[in-house]
Design a protein that fits this description.
By secondary structure, the protein is an all-alpha fold. 68% of the residues lie in helices and 0% in strands. Helix 1 crosses helix 2.
């Protein structure tokens, strides 16, 4: 993901030494791979992964396709006698171990779907979005990687409104490489810088 082409483009944009851009690329690679996996399995507005759905639609889908059916199925499993085929023995007969494992897994999925519903409800109440939360998390991780590579994270605005700080250029290029296209990162960077003193204090 963060190949030689990325390093060359970054050197042209920032004037950084090759050793520094190579260090940044190595630090960004695992972050990029992990976020790509998240995006590939999460409905978002990013270029990567499944199409975004609103919290309302997501909650409706969960209720109709997961929570209600699972609740019924988990309840049905408690009535094992209703699944008896005796005196016949069927080729697909479940063993005691099968029933135990089935009950465990479906119970876990039932619990997960309920917790997921609560999570989406909370996001809806806070007027937050998956995209905003993932963008902020990504910028924080990339910014931490910049700091570890010796690049100070800062903001530098001029009359044009474009952030010309080296770190901002790096973060914009790296996040675009991961997400498929660039996004506005100024407010995420501002929040990161606000949180940084407290984070450094905790890690001291």
């Amino acid at each position: 993901m963060f190949d030689a082409q990325f390093e060359n483009e970054l050197r042209k944009k920032t004037g950084l030494e090759p050793q520094t851009t190579a260090k940044l690329a190595r630090a960004f690679e695992p972050i990029g791979k992990r976020f790509h996996k998240v995006l590939e399995t999460t409905p978002t507005k990013f270029e990567v992964g499944p199409r975004y759905i609103t919290p309302k639609k997501h909650l409706e889908w969960l209720e109709d396709n997961a929570r209600e059916p699972l609740s019924k199925l988990v309840g049905a499993l408690a009535k094992r006698e209703k699944f008896s085929s005796r005196p016949d023995i069927l080729a697909s007969e479940l063993t005691e171990a099968d029933w135990t494992e089935l009950t465990r897994v479906l119970g876990k999925l039932d619990l997960y779907s309920n917790e997921l519903s609560d999570c989406i409800e909370g996001r809806k109440a806070d007027k937050s979005t998956v995209n905003a939360e993932l963008r902020f998390e990504l910028i924080c991780e990339l910014a931490d990687a910049c700091e570890l590579a010796g690049v100070e994270v800062s903001r530098d605005h001029h009359s044009s409104g474009e952030d010309t700080a080296t770190s901002a250029i790096i973060l914009k290029a790296a996040s675009a490489r991961i997400c498929g296209k660039p996004f506005t990162l100024d407010h995420h960077l501002r929040d990161y810088l606000k949180l940084r003193p407290a984070k450094k204090l905790r890690n001291a």
